Amino acid sequence: MNSHLRDRILRKLESLSDERAYQVLDFVEFIESKYAERQNPPPNVFQRFAETVEDRLRAGRVSAATISEAMGLMNRAVSVLNGVAAAGKSVANDIVTAAGRPTSPPPASPPQGSSPSPSTPPTPPQPAAAPPSGAQPAAPPAAAPPAAGAESATTSAGSAPSAPPAPPPQSSGEQPT
Known about the structure:
By secondary structure, the protein is mostly helical. Among the domains are: 40 residues; 61 residues, no CATH class. 46% of the residues lie in helices and 0% in strands. Helix 3 packs antiparallel against helix 4. The longest helix is centred in the middle third of the chain and has 37 residues. About 5% of the residues have low confidence.
């Protein structure tokens, strides 16, 4: 439809009452169903909902003035919801775009011997106590030694890893000093 014809029809419609405008709408929908050359783009979810409410009000013989007020409120609500939907789409697109970007490599691990966290001060290693004379030394744990730089599983939260186990005493009878 050319813009001149559309403007002329709108001028004529503005002079009609709401009851007559609904009759015109019914007639236009009838003509569209019989003779439309192309399909209109489908309305979005909010528009379909508003049109369904309007059709039900009309079927229930509600006055045109009441329907007009209700549809004015519905149209404002639809425009707000369309704005919210557009904002949500924008945020979702931003998230997808951010997720698709390559991330920078993680920072390098701290060098050996450094503190595990900056809030915990380093504690000096405690010397191992020598076993009393004639006592059997404790057997080393059966588990494999932890990997280099790994903390011991027995450390309590917030404390530094414990010192490595002391070497077994020498069998020649000498005591370590």
